[in-house]
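Researcher: Structure prediction, please.
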Amino acid sequence: RLVESGGGLVQSGGSLRLSCARSGRTYAMGWFRRAPGKQREFVAGISWTGGMTYYTDSAKGRFIISRDKATNTLYLQMNNLKPEDTAVYYCAAGDDIWGRQYDYWGQGTQVTISS
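Model: Predicted structure follows.
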């Protein structure tokens, strides 16, 4: 089970940190997002050890994915947010860090960036 939190409304240039509490076995984890009228997009992934990460171009340099194995929590630190980052953000658990095979999904948390 995956439960996201931390979404909200911030101004352009601001920051947010998303959290995803999970229960169950260990997987690779990732963050996806779906903007209004668009398809779901992969944002970032992290290995089950936390030692490997992957970012898409939209996230590179602004977002940081991390995980706390002790508390089974996944994070996405988002900095320098832009209006185009507005979307529902989902955490997911799966088999890779590149967004290809994910079988377990959270319910999503809304992130809105005002200009």
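Model: The longest strand covers residues 87-94.
Researcher: Thanks, that helps.
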